[in-house]
Amino acid sequence: MARDVKPRRKALNTALAWAAGLLIFFPILWPILTSFKTEGDAIASPPVLLFFDWTLENYAVVQERSDYMRYLWNSVIIAGGSTLLGLLVAVPAAWSMAFVPSKRTKDILMWMLSTKMLPAVGVLYPIYLMFIQMGLLDTRIGLVIVLMLINLPIIVWMLYTYFREIPGEILEAARMDGAGLREEILYVLTPMALPGIASTVLLNVILAWNEAFWTLNLTAANAAPLTAFIASYSSPEGLFYAKLSAASTMAIAPILILGWFSQKQLVRGLTFGAVK
Amino acid sequence: MATQHSRSAARIMMAPAVILLLGWMLVPLTMTLWFSFRKYLPLRGGDLGWAGFDNFTRFVSSSTFWPAVQATLIIVVGVIVVTVVLGVLLAILLDQPMWGQGIVRILVIAPFFVMPTVSALVWKNMFMDPVNGLLANLWKAFGAQPVEWLSQAPLSSIVIIVSWEWLPFATLILLTAIQSLDSEQLEAAEMDGAPLLKRFWYVVLPHLSRAITVVILIQTIFLLSIFAEIFVTTQGAFGTRTLTYLIYQRVLESQNVGLGSAGGVYAIILANIVAIFLMRIVGKNLDA
Amino acid sequence: MPLNDLPASYDVDDILPAMRGGLSHDGTLYAAPFYGESSMIMYRTDLMEKAGLEMPESPTWGFIKKAAAAMTDKENEVYGICLRGKAGWGENMAFITAMSNSFGARWFDMDWKPQLDTPEWKETLTFYLDLMNNYGPPGASSNGFNENLSLFQQGKCGMWIDATVAASFVTNPKESTVADKVGFALAPHKDGIDKNANWLWAWALAIPAGTDDAEAAKEFIRWATSKEYIELLASKEGWANVPPGARVSLYENPNYKDIPFAQMALKSILSADPLHPTVKPVPYVGVQFAAIPEFAGIATEVGQEFSAALAGQQSADKALAKAQALTAEAMEAAGY
């Protein structure tokens, strides 16, 4: 792809692209910077960008006042749990669809995709009611189940597209050598599929971490993850910009870093293979 | 090839996923459909009998319905136009040779990983606040009266916030598509002396058309159900009550489950219409 | 579960009658108030003096408007009046509903027909919008209790009508820049109408039937709503910060009496009558709300219409017409 271009044009491209990139990134950068300011500096007019007294006080205050760790832990359990559970169900399904395709495989895949398009609000009350009756409201296990289900189609799809890229001949060869189904999966398939599984996990953790419909509507205090924790900051109490920033930074930092690792796989996962 | 044995094994392996999703789809859907024909008021003792099509007509004839449809359309169309136009431009820009391409890419993609409640809250308080917000400061620096974003231009404000969230998605997909563009084809056009705009119009855009369609369809499905951004910023005030938010208010705030469920049925039908188009494209690709 | 066998030292009769009435059924107490509030005017004595006016104990809306006009100094970011504008049944609607009572309006007539299309409501909303548009802070349509509190503490409000509990925050020198310049008065009323625009709200503790350990729960309630608890808290946090509004004895306590806002808060609580909140008869109980299950949903949506009117998106007439329509729809759907 390397095209020869004049250095002047390359410089112009660079300048333009960096300007656009920084502009887009600024709404993230700004709260990160603000989180290290005092409340007074945070609302200073005109605003200060870098030259202020850096402080870590806000992080301590947020943790102390709202028990941030608890929400973080809830987010970790809900995102991680739903992903693992989803993987457990999806890997066998995707494997069989990729390697033992039948006439209906395509229909099943399409149908799975269609469940993802069900608007959540359309089934809000039934889920809410079932949660109350089963005692799942405001529990982590309840959210793990719901988030697993809403992301299951994406997991199956991503795994399926990865599995399909594994050449069938290798499996044939393994079978010739007398490998059974179990060995085939354990020793041949798994090592080859690991990169695909890893990126599926990554994307799914991100989606579950940021999910903000069910997590807001099905939790109150005990199981509330970071999405709900942040929403509770929506009404200011006195000066709160720096604290809001600290809370926001803590909520997005882990996933921002994970996300940057997964950017290559993002397209495949989010377009269901329609764009490669 | 596949033996009888492996076929039945395959079926068993597929079963859990299929059964779970089938249950997840059918049970709540049936309940919603059932409720939508009932007079169901939890605060007044629950299920109070058949309502026929009352809920459906009441939902549509309510004074809040058309404004909600309008708000939904403005947000969905607004965000799609902004993200696709800017996305194409950004994708082309990022495809050019430059220094530090990887870092710029990371910067551009970042908003996608920010949870919706955080983006809404940060935009609302730190940028759009009419007293202490950054935009207010910017306006003041130029001697202008700060805009009260969320009350004076509520829909545009929401479009700005949501577009910021979705621009990375559009850019990333369009960038992927653009990178698959045959560079020889472009160079040939360049040799022929076709001006930049013509090259864009006749070579780049047609190549991107499929990716753009996918972006539009996927975004439509997600945008039809945006919730957190409105929940955090205006709670549906100032004409930002979308269909999704209206249904949420009917179900959980006014606790009129029958009416809300009828709205839910409408929302499901609407989403399905969009979904059919998307599925066609995806399905075609599956055969290839 | 009834709370009838509380010990004599608890002194049930010490609970403010307005509170006791609301929490009893047929003379039996079912919940014990932990905290009670009404609303009142908090104003800047220095600005009032500068304007050459004197706040009566129970001002009329006419006086409030005159005072707001005199105190407003937009150049210096001082706004004559700060009121709730953020949509929500517990936000702007608590205030506007209480205000409408003082204009002789009501939510429903005796047949549960919504009354938002009456002249009384129009006068209420028009007056509110006029006041806020001319003398209120910018962005008022997104100001709730917290936002107004911080504006008042920063010295940007001349008057603020809100919960009595705010008095302890605005007079706290650690949080407020105007702590020593705050005066208090009863919420306003319209000339010739003897209802003031103050509300009544309580946080109370009760025991649900079928609980596992009723005795422990009762003991906790007895303790948390007792005189000893108030004294314990006073010794740790200071008298200005004890939960107010529940007991008569608190307002007779010499330590509490000295607190500048105590008597006005008590008067406000005593003057609110949830059983007869309006001038014309109504089928519901509640001052700043109507105690029916549908009210929260309805009032939140009505509040959004009023908030949009405050933001300048629609006229008072349009907002009221929409409010009337959506209230009627909701009431019809609920089966009234």
TrEMBL record, chain A:
Keyword Cell membrane part of the UniProt annotation: yes
Membrane-topology descriptor: Multi-pass membrane protein
Record carries keyword Ribonucleoprotein: no
Predominant subcellular localization, coarse grouping: membrane
Residue ranges constituting the ABC transmembrane type-1 domain according to the UniProt record: 72-262
Biological process terms in GO annotation: transmembrane transport
Positions of transmembrane segments: 12-33, 71-96, 108-129, 141-163, 184-207, 240-261
CDD domains registered for this protein in UniProt: TM_PBP2 (cd06261)
Subcellular localization: Cell membrane
InterPro entries tied to this protein: BP-dep_ABC_trans_perm (IPR050901), MetI-like (IPR000515), MetI-like_sf (IPR035906)
Cellular component terms per the entry's GO annotation: plasma membrane
UniProtKB keywords: Cell membrane, Membrane, Transmembrane, Transmembrane helix, Transport
Protein family membership: Belongs to the binding-protein-dependent transport system permease family.
PANTHER family noted in UniProt: INNER MEMBRANE ABC TRANSPORTER PERMEASE PROTEIN YCJP, MALTOSE TRANSPORT SYSTEM PERMEASE-RELATED
This protein's name: Sorbitol/mannitol transport system permease protein
Lineage, highest ranks first: Bacteria, Pseudomonadati, Pseudomonadota, Alphaproteobacteria, Rhodobacterales
UniProtKB/TrEMBL annotation, chain B:
Subcellular location: Cell membrane
InterPro entries recorded: ABC_transporter_permease (IPR051393), MetI-like (IPR000515), MetI-like_sf (IPR035906)
Gene3D superfamilies associated with the record: MetI-like
Boundaries of every ABC transmembrane type-1 domain copy: 69-278
Keyword Transport part of the UniProt annotation: yes
UniProt GO cellular component terms: plasma membrane
Gene Ontology biological process terms, A to Z: transmembrane transport
Family note: Belongs to the binding-protein-dependent transport system permease family.
Protein name as catalogued: Sorbitol ABC transporter membrane protein /mannitol ABC transporter membrane protein
Automatic annotation (TrEMBL), chain C:
Gene3D superfamilies: Periplasmic binding protein-like II
CDD domains: PBP2_TMBP_like (cd13585)
Chief subcellular location: periplasm
Record-linked InterPro entries: Bact_solute-bd_prot1, SBP
One of the record's GO cellular component terms: periplasmic space
Cellular compartment(s): Periplasm
Annotated family: Belongs to the bacterial solute-binding protein 1 family.
Name of the protein described by the UniProt record: Sorbitol/mannitol transport system substrate-binding protein
